Give the backbone structure.
Amino acid sequence: MQKDSEWAKKRLKEIEVELEAYPFSREQASFIVIKGIESLYNDDEAQAKYCFDRSLEQFKKARYIPGLFISLNIILFFISDFEKYYELNQTYKSRLKQYELEYKLTGLEFIISRELDALL
């Protein structure tokens, strides 16, 4: 396990250096999610929340809404591994619901189902 941790830290540093050379906001935002997940595994809830919030804001700023939803689902997937982060889990579940309403995703289910039914 120690060897895996060392490999992961080395690889994260390599990615960080690469992103400094090619600063694309979507990729940076995704990487920040990974750093947040690393913080969860290092028992640093405050740093994880900081990373997750920063990442989501960066996706919104880039107007890359699919990345926002993908990242939120990734965040929720990893947080669910930790019972001790219940409050953090609730925060991001709430944020997901908020964004679903803000971007009117709740109404899309009916429209998509109707279109699919018409094709079948």
About this structure: The longest helix spans residues 2-21. The chain has six helices and no strands.
